Amino acid sequence: MNRSSHAWSPITDLPDNWKESLVNAETFNLVRTWNERVRELREQKLYEDFQARLYRQWAIETGILEGQYSLSEGATTNLIKLGLDASLISHEDTDRPPEQVYAQIRDHHDAIMGVVQFLSGTRPLGTSYIKELHRVLTAHQETYVARDTLGNIVTRKLPKGKWKTLSNSVEHPDGTGFEYCPPEHVNQEMENLIEMHLRHEAEHVHPDVEAAWLHHRFTLIHPFTDGNGRVARCLAVLALLKADWLPLVITHRQRNEYISALRSADNGNLKPLVELIDLLQREAIREAGQLDTEAAAIGDILEIVERKLDRQQRDETEQAFEAADSLQALAKGRLEDISQQIGGKIQGKGQDYRSYVSEGRRGSDKARYNHWQITQIAKACGYFADLQRYRAWTALVILTEHRTELLFSFHGIGREAAGILGCSAMVYNKEEIETGESMISEITPLSGEPFTFTYREDPSDMQRRFGHWLDECILKGLNYWQRSL
Fold first, then answer.
1. Do strands 170-171 and 153-157 pair parallel, antiparallel, or not at all (unpaired)?
2. Domains parsed from the chain with CATH numbers
3. Taking the model in full, what pTM does it have?
């Protein structure tokens, strides 16, 4: 390798300030609240089915991410929903022989279920288990593609469950490359990785931070000839499941974001990888919160849970509602400041040009307004907005040639997850048509996901987080307004 964009060096520990620089309080509190709500639900078959689908999805997507095979959306969906069945993969669904693809998916599934079984025992994580994991993951992968010393692409037999004996550093066409750990240092580096990981567990490093660190440092070592990405994602799942978080499922749709986060970690910034893990964790919780759409039996289950937690849950729910009330008041105050600034700029520039703030507080008749916009934006962002449990909103209205509204809706997230609330943000234009009714333009989300919070979070931390999120959304909304003028 003539030039290297990344020269190898021994792996490093977490930064001393990992709590301040990497921890996301929103995700941490969200998971804790969710686990309280589903402690009883976890024992039911419905939740087991949900987990089983996540593991099947992991088994399929981990191979697609590595380019082991391609698979059509239809086949992927059927395998996740109906179970792993070779008959669900046809020649048209993949770029490899269907029986080979199915065998590799089964290997991946065996590996991830092996992680679940491993966690049920008392055996500590060590290099022997990681080698076993590699053997299972690659059971039906006989070869790998590499370059020889002359730069020619060659196919070689894959050693399974053994540390590499040849360099697997990557060289790019422009002469730059990535230098992984040399073979002679692999054993010591893996021992260092395990030692640091066990110390992190004793120090109660947050699961998302540890999953990101363990994944990235393992990939820097790249101890196996091939299959390192799959092993790394297994280790990340292990770190999350051990803390009772949901498994990390990175799909091919998130590949670019995933690779970008790993490159940032290569340059010393682990935060984007932690943020990606947090994002996927929140999405999985929102999906799990909607399990009752899949079977009527969930209603009975949740009624049992509700009765068992009755008094405690009512208190916690009221705390969550009070937190939402405080955030709605904060949003109203901020929007009123913005409205005054806008009014000073547009007043007199046109007939009836003005700006004002409107709201619908919890329990008021106006709280029921804007139902269509709120449900549409929740659908676009992939979650269920529970407007029965909590409902309030505030909006900035700007009247110029168009009526532009920046709407912030506060509501429950998911079904019956009483401690989890959120705020969605959107912008749109309204026009009056000949019938005197209002027509709403296409609704644009101001954030890719709702701002979520729980009764557990410290109020000052929650308001600080919300203030940053709110300002970002307002800025995006005002940019939309000025472009529409």
1. unpaired
2. 18-293 (1.10.3290.10), 309-484 (no CATH)
3. 0.78
